[in-house]
Amino acid sequence: MEKIGLIAGNGRFPLLFAKGAQANKIAVIAVGIEGETSPEIEQYVEQLHWIGVAQIGKLIKIFKREQVTRAVMAGGLTKTNMFSSWRNLRFLPDLRTINLWYKNVKNRDDHSLLGAVADELLKDGIELQNSTLYVPQLLAQSGILTKRKPSEKEMEDIHFGWPIGKEISRLGIGQCLVVKEKVVLAVEALEGTDECIRRGGNLGRDNIVVIKVSKQEFDPRFDIPTVGLETIKTLKGSSASVLAVEAGKTLILDVEETLAAADEARIAIIGL
Fold it and tell me: Are residues 122 and 146 in the same domain?
């Protein structure tokens, strides 16, 4: 049976990828990240192994032992852990990770780090592939995706904020910003999309517009912008009225349920 490796981070995307591969009769050999990956994933994979977040050497050994020659990354990591007081003890980096971090990675942005991991895997004959390989239906379509359409003013905010979003993404700052009446209320940094939305909501009070874009050097192998039911909950709690995402380059997890939740909350979602 054909097999694929899965480097599983947090959130629902790893589970949905595993289900998609299973539906295509592909055996999934998953490597979970301790403290990040949901144990639920075990239901949808052939084998499940566990590693620390900074154990690339162990990850490669597992895939080689399982004769995995192609793999995907799915799900995120809690980036704020990078600055925890006991990070060295918590992460327990192996020698291969230490060499990668200090010798091969000059920039510490996601694109550089994950690209270096992909290169490291390839050295051992493991090719990192497009993470939407078996779930292309999760990619956002172009146009209005919900029953409610953005108003004329909201569209003006989207067109105002879109190039700013692309610029902060190009600079490696973040991929999300919050706008109201052509004023930028919040820009995403290390804290992530949900916290950015909450900050913007606290300032804007109501009817804020949230914009989420892909990176300039978009690489479908990793770090695809992702929204889902949790995003809708955060938008609702922050009194947001619109979510604009990049069509074809953004994942909408549990698409039907997410769009239904947006409709119920009277939130417009548009793919540009």
Answer: no
152 CB neighbour count, 10 Å cutoff: 7
User: Is there a domain that residue 255 lies in?
Assistant: yes
CATH number for the domain that contains residue 39: 3.40.50.20
Same domain, yes or no: 77 and 189: no
Residue-range definition of the domain harbouring residue 69: 3-128
- For residues 116 and 215, state if they share a domain: no
* CA–CA gap between residue 102 and residue 115 (Å, rounded): 15
> Distance between terminal CA atoms of the chain?
39
Per-residue pLDDT of the chain (272 residues; tens, 9 = 90+): 799 999 999 999 999 999 999 999 999 999 999 999 999 999 999 999 999 988 999 999 999 999 999 999 999 887 655 544 444 545 578 888 887 777 766 666 666 778 888 899 999 999 999 999 999 999 999 999 999 999 999 999 999 999 999 999 999 899 999 999 999 999 999 889 999 999 999 999 999 999 999 988 888 888 789 999 999 999 999 999 999 999 999 999 999 999 999 999 999 999 99
The answer as to whether 134 is a domain residue is no
If asked whether residues 68 and 146 sit together in one domain, one would say: no
Q: Say if CB 110 and CB 167 are below 8 A apart.
A: no
- CA 191 to the chain's CA centroid: 13
Number of domains in the chain: 2
Is 146 in the same domain as 265? yes
H or E element, residue 180: strand 176-180
Count, residues in the chain: 272
What pTM, to 2 d.p., does this model score? 0.87
Neighbours of 235 (CB within 10 A): 25
Dihedral Cα 217, 218, 224, 227, nearest 10 deg: 90
